Amino acid sequence: MNEKATAEGLHQVKASWSPYARLPQSWRSRLRKWWDRLGLNRDVASRLRYEGDMMLLRSRCALSRSYSLEINRLAGRRHLRLHLGCGQALLPGWINMDCYPPTPVQGTEILMLDMRRRWPLADGSASALFSEHFLEHLPFETVRGHVLREIYRVLEPEGQVRIGVPDGEYFVEQYVASKRGAAEALYEQACQGKSPMVMLNEIAHGHGHYFVYDFETMRQILEEAGFTGVRRMSPGSTDAEVFKGMDRKDPWRRAMTLYVEAVRP
Ligand SMILES: C[S@@+](CC[C@H](N)C(=O)[O-])C[C@H]1O[C@@H](n2cnc3c(N)ncnc32)[C@H](O)[C@@H]1O
Q1: What does the domain layout of the chain look like in residue ranges?
Q2: Whose CA is closest to atom 10 on ligand 1?
Q3: Could you read off the pLDDT of 110-162 as tens digits, one per residue?
Q4: Which residue has the CA at smallest separation from atom 6 of ligand 1?
Q5: Domain 77-167+213-263 in this protein, CATH class
Q6: What's the gap between Cα 100 and its chain centre?
Q7: Is 133 in the pocket of ligand 1 (CB under 6 A)?
Q8: What is the tens place of the pLDDT at every residue in 23-70?
Q9: Contacts of 15 (CB under 8 A, 6+ apart)
Q10: How far is residue 38's CA from residue 110's CA, in Å, rounded to a whole number?
Q11: Is 134 in the pocket of ligand 1 (CB under 6 A)?
């Protein structure tokens, strides 16, 4: 996202359509002061704001004529390549899906939606789906019971999926290694003086995260949703032409991301 996650809240988006994001800074700090005076937790405010935005988004989509025209056009297309939870990373040649998408850039396509609801795409209309650092932003049961099923539904037979999420196992391993003074330099650097236990908690529940995955869990839920050929991939490596060059390149991202590919039979 284009703003660092802070104690101020979840799903931080500086330049989004969210009414809160459009309030002047002075209003936002006044609101925060009132909220604090009521003795309420900032996380609650953040989640309320997010749910309010999602309600607004769904009503706007339901009422907007241009949105329904766009959806009708999309519904008629096949062999789509879908980029889930794109954030600021707009990929040309892909349908970039997000609830807070950035301003479209020429040559890129955006689909604004709340992915916790049914996606306005036809069954079997996509040949590939890529998602990086998105699924951890939704509750585990939403991913397991809804999102993976939607991915399965919209993929065509032999359609491929590549998912990248923070690797829980990596953080646990580095936590243990740090006790022996043997954690990786990149991890130490990312800790920026925070204790490894704080890092563990942050990766599970900070930055708007709900859940941290390991390969075993990801494989289990992908297979449960019907996918086959589930395999762990190294960052930057893939068997599928369509995913070549897709992973983010910065070394810390690569060290801490679990990439998994699977096929819709
Ligand atoms: C950490 S960002 C990932 C951005 C990008 N993929 C990356 O790797 O930098 C997570 C994204 O999930 C999006 N998101 C969160 N909840 C969502 C929802 N219910 N529907 C659609 N997108 C959602 C947020 O707007 C945000 O852009």
Answers
A1: 1-63, 77-167+213-263
A2: 134
A3: 999 999 999 999 999 999 999 999 999 999 999 999 999 999 999 999 999 99
A4: 86
A5: alpha beta
A6: 11
A7: yes
A8: 999 999 999 999 999 999 888 888 999 999 999 999 999 999 999 999
A9: 2, 21, 102, 103
A10: 39
A11: yes
